[in-house]
């Protein structure tokens, strides 16, 4: 049988959140996956879970947490911020005994909060994620016959928050995204899509999957995590 | 350079819209995009623009973006080539 997940919980901000776990109970290595943010998270979820299954067959355990306000979380997205998500990453890493961190795309804005060895795939600045969300809103407004600009939206959002492509972005999240960038360090291993024979699934307008990419990622992460100390 | 921009835009459409390499290589200047390719919705337009900026190292102002830009493949390539030359 293919590896099956266990549903665990962790608590952050007085709230219990789900966390998916694959791999042996007594694994030496437990990789915390910090997922991409917003739509990119949904578009890559299947690829990430297949990657976790692949890691499990290599006896490497992995964790995929729900960030507060996402997936099954009962917390409101509109009160989240990059800061509250960073606390969640630090909390889940400590409570579920993570030994390494793998961050994909926007996950790179949160990954150093856990203070563990980090491997990153295609990190992105908060400002780029925000720009994409704003553009989707501007394009949707245009189709509805309303003309808006990014500057107008940001000013309005600083008080009341914004609905961007179906995501309730609160004032704090908006401000955090404008300035958040992946922390640079020689200790962090960065990979690009060409390193993992990958395709930019996070950009797709429809969620997709890539078994080759999941397998290549798992192989890279297995090699990397075996090399770096705990 | 013009060939490069066109190649980059083809790769981008394949990544963002998940189009097969056959579909992407069949695109020509008059190929309709917005409205003709169901995968190209407003959310995809947002991702596409940000990705065009990243891959070609250009900045696109939102007031430069109109319906015409995504009307045909040729329009998109010409716009990107103009921006790269600036």
Major sheet summary line of chain A = 7 strands, mixed
The order of strands across the largest sheet of chain A is 1-2-4-3-5-6-9
Query: What is the number of beta strands of chain B?
Result: 0
Average of per-residue pLDDT values of chain A: 93
Shape of chain A: globular
The structural class of chain A is: alpha/beta
Q: Layout of helices and strands, plus pairs?
A:
The complex is a heterodimer of chains A (230) and B (86).
Chain A: E1 6-12, E2 15-22, E3 30-34, H1 39-57, E4 61-65, H2 82-95, E5 100-104, E6 118-121, H3 126-143, H4 150-160, E7 162-164, E8 167-169, H5 171-179, E9 189-191, H6 211-227
Parallel strand pairs in A: 3-4, 3-5, 5-6, 6-9
Antiparallel strand pairs in A: 1-2, 2-4, 7-8
Helix pairs in contact in A: 1-6, 3-5, 4-5
Chain B: H1 2-17, H2 21-25, H3 42-56, H4 73-85
Helix pairs in contact in B: 1-3, 1-4
Describe what this molecule looks like in 3D.
The complex is a heterodimer of chains A (230) and B (86). Chain A is an alpha/beta fold and 230 residues long. Chain A has six helices and nine strands, in the order βββαβαββααββαβα. In chain A, the strands form two sheets. Chain A has a seven-stranded mixed beta sheet with strand order 1-2-4-3-5-6-9, sandwiched between helices. The two termini of chain A are 31 Å apart. Chain B is mainly α and 86 residues long. In chain B, helix 1 packs antiparallel against helix 3 (42-56). The longest helix of chain B is centred in the first third of the chain and has 16 residues, at 2-17. The relative contact order of chain B is 0.20.
Question: Care to give the gist of this entry?
Answer:
Chain A is an alpha/beta fold and 230 residues long. Chain A contains 6 helices and 9 strands; from the N terminus they run E-E-E-H-E-H-E-E-H-H-E-E-H-E-H.
């Amino acid at each position: 049988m293919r590896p099956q997940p266990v549903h665990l919980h962790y608590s952050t901000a007085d709230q219990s959140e789900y966390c998916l776990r694959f791999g042996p109970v007594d694994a030496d290595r437990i990789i915390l996956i910090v997922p991409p943010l917003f739509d990119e998270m949904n578009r890559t979820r299947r690829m990430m879970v297949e990657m976790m299954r692949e890691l499990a067959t290599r006896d490497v355990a992995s964790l995929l947490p729900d960030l507060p306000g996402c997936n099954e979380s009962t917390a409101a997205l509109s009160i989240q911020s990059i800061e509250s998500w960073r606390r969640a990453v630090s909390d889940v890493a400590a409570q579920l005994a993570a030994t390494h961190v793998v961050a994909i795309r926007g996950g790179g804005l949160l990954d150093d909060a856990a203070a563990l060895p980090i491997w990153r795939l295609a990190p992105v600045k908060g400002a780029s994620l925000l720009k994409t969300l704003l553009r989707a809103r501007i394009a949707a407004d245009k189709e509805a016959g309303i003309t808006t600009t990014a500057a107008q939206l940001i000013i309005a959002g600083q008080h009341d928050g914004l609905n961007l492509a179906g995501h309730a972005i609160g004032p704090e999240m908006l401000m955090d995204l404008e300035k958040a960038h992946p922390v640079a360090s020689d200790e962090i291993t960065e990979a690009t899509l060409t390193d993992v024979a990958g395709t930019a699934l996070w950009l797709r307008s429809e969620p997709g999957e890539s078994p080759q990419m999941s397998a290549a990622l798992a192989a890279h992460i297995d090699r990397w995590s075996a090399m770096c100390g705990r | 350079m013009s060939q490069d921009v066109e190649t980059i835009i083809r790769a981008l459409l394949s990544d963002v819209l998940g189009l097969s390499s056959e579909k992407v290589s069949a695109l020509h200047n008059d190929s309709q995009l917005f409205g003709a390719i169901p995968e190209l919705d407003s959310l995809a337009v947002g991702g596409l623009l940000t990705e065009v900026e990243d891959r070609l190292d250009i900045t696109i102002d939102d007031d430069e973006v109109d319906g015409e830009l995504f009307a045909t493949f040729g329009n998109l390539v010409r716009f990107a080539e103009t921006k790269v030359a600036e």
